[in-house]
Design brief:
The structure is a single chain. The chain has 264 residues and is mainly alpha-helical. It has one domain. 78% of the residues lie in helices and 3% in strands. It has ten helices and two strands; from the N terminus they run H-H-H-H-H-H-H-E-E-H-H-H. A two-stranded antiparallel sheet has the order 1-2. Helix 2 runs antiparallel to helix 3.
Length: 264
């Protein structure tokens, strides 16, 4: 029931922001999601004894998102600030040189994982029909997750990556891909006319696979940090990272496909 109520409240809010929010409002929405995801990430690595630079990482993540929002030339500012800020932070706060790279490396990973991947949705929103594209991607990931859950629960017999995610099965993974393909086909025929059915199905197949890599990647982080969920902010669903792990990989994958095959 908690999952149902959370979904009933959260899904219309997200859809409304994507479809009717201004570019600035959508940017603020992405910043808020990334900030929460970043907090969850640093909380998880703290659980295994690594003290990342949470404040500095959050500021750098925000600067990276601003770069996505304002344009590629502003990303150069981030490229300069990133090593300077991280190494300067260690010089000021660090005490043990034998583990100097640990907080720097984990902070860098957190920035790229949350803001670096999440920022692609700002780029996607700026494409022609960007709002509809994001809805399309959300539909693919949600349909894949639902299909994987029920497919794995009813037919799952062969473990996929038991060391990382014991409950994931090969059958559930196949169901995920089939679910994304079905959702893409229905979306193409129903409301999503920006791309041909062929491109929709190709994108669905790619996102169905790489989205699962996003799920496994977050599971790897959680298992390494010995936590069950990334957080508790969404009742019945865990943390924000638990909800967006597949999207963080699917979004950049779609954007690359668009630039290579659809942007001309």
């Amino acid at each position: 029931m908690k999952r149902v109520i959370s979904g009933a409240i959260g899904i219309p809010l997200v859809l409304g922001l994507v479809l009717y929010g201004s570019p600035l409002l959508f940017f603020c929405f992405v910043v808020a999601i990334v900030a929460i995801a970043s907090y969850e990430y640093f909380s998880m690595i703290a659980n295994m004894g690594v003290e990342g630079y949470q404040i500095e990482g959050g500021v750098l993540g925000f600067i990276l998102l601003v770069g996505f929002y304002l344009g590629a030339k502003f990303l150069g500012i981030f490229a300069v600030l990133l090593p300077v800020v991280l190494f300067t932070t260690w010089f000021v706060r660090g005490k043990n040189i034998s583990v100097a790279l640990d907080p720097i490396a984990y902070t860098l990973l957190g920035i790229i994982y949350t803001a670096g991947l999440g920022g692609y949705f700002i780029l996607i929103r700026d494409l022609d029909g960007g709002s509809q594209i994001i809805i399309f991607l959300l539909l693919l990931v949600w349909a894949g997750d639902v299909a994987a859950y029920y497919g794995g629960r009813n037919f799952g017999k062969h473990k996929l990556l038991p060391l990382v995610s014991p409950n994931k099965t090969v059958e559930g993974g196949i169901a995920n891909i089939l679910g994304t393909l079905l959702a893409a086909g229905l979306a193409s025929l129903w409301f999503f006319e920006e791309f041909s059915l062929t491109h929709c199905l190709i994108v669905a197949f790619i996102c169905g696979i790489i989205g699962q890599f996003g799920d496994f990647s977050e599971s790897l982080i959680k298992r390494n940090c010995q936590v069950k969920d990334s957080g508790t902010l969404i009742p019945g669903h865990g943390g924000f990272l638990d909800r967006i792990d597949s999207l963080l990989f699917a979004g950049p994958a779609f954007y690359c496909y668009y630039q290579l095959f659809l942007g001309a």
